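PT: before anyone asks, these are the final sequences, not the draft ones from last week. 971 residues across everything. Please model them as a single complex and drop the result in this thread when it's through.
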Amino acid sequence: MAEALLFYTLAALILGLGVMVVSARSAVHSVLFLVVNFLLVAVLYVTLNAEFVAVIQVLVYAGGIVVLYLFVVMLVNLKQAPERFSDPRRLARSGLVLGGVVLALIVVVVSSSLRAGAAPEGTLSGFGTPFTSGNTEQLGWVLYTSYLIPFELASMLLLVAMVGAIVLAKRHLGE
Amino acid sequence: MDLIWLIPLLPGLGAALNGLVGIRFFSKQTAGLVAVSTMAVAFVLSVVAFLGLLGLPADERYHEVTVASWIPPIPLETANGIGSFEVPWAFALDPLSGMMLLVVTGIGLLIHVYSVGYIAHEPRGGVARFFCYLNLFCFFMLTLVLGSSFLVMFVGWEGVGLCSYLLIGYWYRKQSASDAGKKAFIVNRIGDWGFILGIFLVFFTFGTLDFREVAEAAAGMPVEVGFGVLSLICLFLFIGATGKSAQIPLYVWLPDAMEGPTPVSALIHAATMVTAGVYMVCRNAVLFSHAPMVMEVVAWIGVLTAFMAATIGLVQTDIKRVLAYSTVSQLGYMFLATGVGAFAAGAFHLMTHAFFKALLFLGSGSVIHGMNEEQDMRRMGGLKAYMPTTFWTMAIGAVAIAGIPPLAGFFSKDEILYRTFLHSQALWGIGALTAVMTAFYMFRLINMTFLGRYRGPEWGHPAGGEAHDDGGHGHAWHGPHESPRTMTAPLMVLAVGAVFAGFIGVPAALGGSNVIEHFLEPSFTAFGAFHAAEEAHHLSHTAELGLMALSVLLAAGAILFAYRNYVQQPAAADEMARTFAGPHRVLTNKYYVDELYGATVVRGTMEGANGLWTVDQRVVDGAVNGAGWTTIFSSWVSHVLDKYVVDGLVNLVAWVCAEASYLFRRAQTGLIQNYAFATLLGVFAFVTWYLLAR
Amino acid sequence: MLEITPLHYSLLSAALFMIGVIGVLVRRNVIIIFMSIELILNAVNINLVALSDQLQDLAGQVFVVFVIAVAAAEAAVGLGIIIAFYRNKETVNIDEIQIMRW
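LR: through. Structure below.
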């Protein structure tokens, strides 16, 4: 019961904040909503027994990436927001259309899953063999044994992205 | 003897020197000296070569010198499979060519000397040009004589034709002279056509063009009874001979050739070039003796030409034309001789005729020179008093040609008549009649020119209305006069020749041994077949003597008749002309042969050419132009199709693309969100399809 | 209804995903579009973590780690591009970034 309450609360907040992120007029507001959104998602992760991912979510996403967004917003320092002259009706119309599409999709998915049979049984936390050791340790094992090569490739990807970002953001090469 | 290749070369060098340098730079004397000296050296070399030939045994008298390989071996088809067409530039010396060599260089030398005096009145460049032509002629004539094969001979053959044209048209500003030159050349070309065909056929039949090899091959073949390939060859060769040697039907050019300078007439149109045909027939004696039918044709053409030309000669008044027809007539004799198989007699007559005809022509040249270019005998007469040397030498020539013993003409002509008698009485009859007429017209010439009363123009009136310093003469005419020594000296030499040349051919009936016939015999038989055929039948010596006596008597009668008609009673000739007005007119007009040719051959050719021209212009040009118009029209059609159909299709495709792109490029907004939306729709559609299809 | 099944997580994920997509399609500010993309990635991550817990398989969480790494790289490069573009055009309006139209 408390679990369900927690989930619904979190889901409502996440979705509401997501709507706020998308619809906020100011980019700075949008970023702030995004931080809160990420933190709530991290809480959701904790409820799903994924403590390490939740910590990563907080550190990397909410801490690193969002700060990066904030810097960029400050750097760009818009005199006038692009949406200032946009047609409000256009936004509403687009949102309506997309809402319709979403509705259609949900209908399709639900109907198809009802047709395929009952939903997967049992709750998440009460089933399966519980993790014997801590989540972080297990994840470390898996990450550094089975997924070693993808892990190293990811590190290379980050390096390349870093170099690329520096090259792009630099005013001009040689200046 | 190995130097015989020098003999033609020397006059050739002289011609080159005079032609390339002399016309511009040489004085008259230098030009003459160059020409005379080259001929003199050539003559000396000829004599040396001839003596060398005499030193050999009779059946080894054949010497061939190859100067260069001319035409390399070319495979050509012949009657006996593929043959090799190879012609070396080679000269051959044998009794026949040796004799001709002496005649050409000897008489050529005399005529060169004579020309120095005769041509002296021409302008300086003209003299060098004249000697250039004269030397060039000797070069070609000697090539013709010495050539060891048909092709080398043909080079000379064409060359002398060219020189003949050049020399007849020497006074090219004179319309009649240049016309006569062209006539000679064209008529000769008709004969050459036959000669070339003959050469082709010789090569096709025998696979070689060498005279000796051809003769040997022909000797191995049977004498043709009907008309076979040998007969065809001989007929073609004889057509060539009629052109060059002025026989029916191609004799018409020779009388007109008298438009050239008189030494030219003497050298080319009496002594040497016109004998080329006879020489060629003699050279191919073996071939001809294997074709009896053609021999018969040759004999009849010869005797008819002799007769016809003699009758025309009876009434001509131009001194050179009389001699021209006499030449044609004597050439007819020579062909008569070859036609009856008496090749040696023909060649003998060729030689003696060269002496006395050259003599007569040079004499007439002297008369014309002395009479200031007057050629009409009716305006001469009594010239004996003014030019005694000319008179006596010409008289000797006339006696010689008339056949009065013991001069040269008697022996050669009676040899021919005797051999003809053996062959056919009809031929002999015409021949004898011709001999009588020869005697008559020759003494008519002598009498009208030198005896009787002077009928020429007055002289010695410097202020007179008739100016006589026309032509090339730079001085006034002072009446008939003897010619300079350079002109009379050759006359005397030739007169001596005309008297004594006959003694090398004294027949057995008169106690001689007919040296010349035995000397020439090897040339008329195939090599190694010496004395193959002896005469089948002989008349007794008495009968032979009887024939001689008859012809001498007839000739003497004709001479007396001429003396009566033209000296004692000059009116008698006119009376005769009136009595026989019809025949006289026909003869004066030369049987209207020129008119006949003009109306048929010349007119026909011109009409044909006009017709062809019309065809060319209408049909060929029309076809070409039609093709051109068709091309232009079709290209226009193609252009229209290209422009409106092909281009239209291409443009249509382009237009469709442009219109279609106008629609579709609306989708290409460049707005990323549009693309993303399209992607999203695609994802939705795909997911929906996937779920529904499951 | 009160029992929380993976279907609930999936529906939550789908909803969050749609919100992100709508943001990408509707907004014109490039920075907000990027943030919408982050939302989409988060939606995916929720799904992965939920199913990892359901199936007791750590691969899902490993994927999440990689997704976060890729998201970091994407954010770095994308924001670099935004800065470079802004420097040239003095704008971050995506409607004005249309040089690739016909």
